[in-house]
Design a protein that fits this description.
This protein is an alpha+beta fold. The protein has two domains: 184 residues, no CATH class; 200 residues, no CATH class. Helix content is 50%, strand content 14%. It comes from Streptomyces nymphaeiformis.
Amino acid sequence: MTRSPKRSPQRSPKRSPKGEAPREEPRTEPREKSPKRRRVVEPSRLAARDVLAEAVAGMLQRPGRSVLTALGTVLGVGTFVAILGLTATTSSQIDSRFNVLTATEVTVEDVARDQNEFADPAFPADADARIERLGGVEDAGVYWNVRLAPGTAVRSAPVGDGTGSERIDVVAASPGALRAAEPTLAQGRLYDEFASGSAQPVAVLGKAVADRLGITTLETSPAVFIGDEPFTVAGIIDDVKRRADVLMSVTVPRTTAEKLWGPPQQGDAKMLITTATGAAAQIAREAPVALRPDHPEYLKAVPPPDPRTLRAGVTDDLDQLFLLLAAVSLVIGAVGIANTTLVAVLERTGEIGLRRALGARGRHITVQFLTESGALGTMGGLVGTALGVSTVIAVALVRDWTPVMHTGTVVAAPAVGLVTGVVAGLYPAWRASRIEPAEALRR
């Protein structure tokens, strides 16, 4: 007997009372999904205008402190601009001096002993005349330091042995060598070709030597004594453009020195030649042949150095030194701003907590304090730039120079102040952003 499959039981409609139709159960509609909840509090925003307003208000709240804070940047940027400006100005003056003096000077040295140990001094007696016949030569002369016997002193009185007195150098020089030094006379005059040709006992003193010997005027015809030899003072030199050692020595004619103390020893004598602009290199090549056509190798002519190479070396050294000083000044200014900003953060802890409680984010606090420190740095940079430029102009006017300022320096200086202020405010701004509102409000 087969079993019929089980049927699932079906619910029979509920029977209504007699005379009423069967009642159906109400169908339930599927529920709609509830809409997403909207944020009630929008994230706070800080506009650039508000940031600037808050920064200005923070600086004006304590104007004295703001001025002192910016003072560090003023000094740093002002020093930066002044140093770079003075470096450029002095470099231009160095350029002109190199072009005028160094490029027109040739020195000839006696190297005969290096070539032949039995050779006599290389310079002939008429060395000045031979060189002055070359085209482009303005003045030329031989000079050397006289080697006096031990105990020989230079004094202004005939009595006394000079024991214990300071040593004074004696230089033998032809009239052309003195003229080539381009001296400025305080009194008297230089000895001439006649005095040199006749080996006259005359001397020219440097200003420093005259002061040490107590000679202040030539109206009384003073004399100096080199050992026991008297020399009439012909002139007193106040300044020179070349061979500054002349100011610290007694200069006598070359022929007089040879007559009293003998010719110069090997390697002592040199020749100073001044030339027209652009002729120095040619004169350096021609001088040894003109002086000693038989042995030009006995003489070594030293031409002037390349002014561009020399200028570049001096300028680089000055730039490195002065930029280091300017950087130190900027670091000092940055430390001052950082210290003052950090103190301001500690004093305004309650204000920071209130701002955080009202919805300000940590980055808003950071931006606010960075803006304040950046504004102080920029203000210091502008004032420092003005002071630096004024300093360069004032120094140039006093020294009768032409002020030189690079445009990039003037334009970049306020930006340097801004960067200095922002970098100095990084740590205080970070500290301010880490302050918790509840903890700040409890203080």
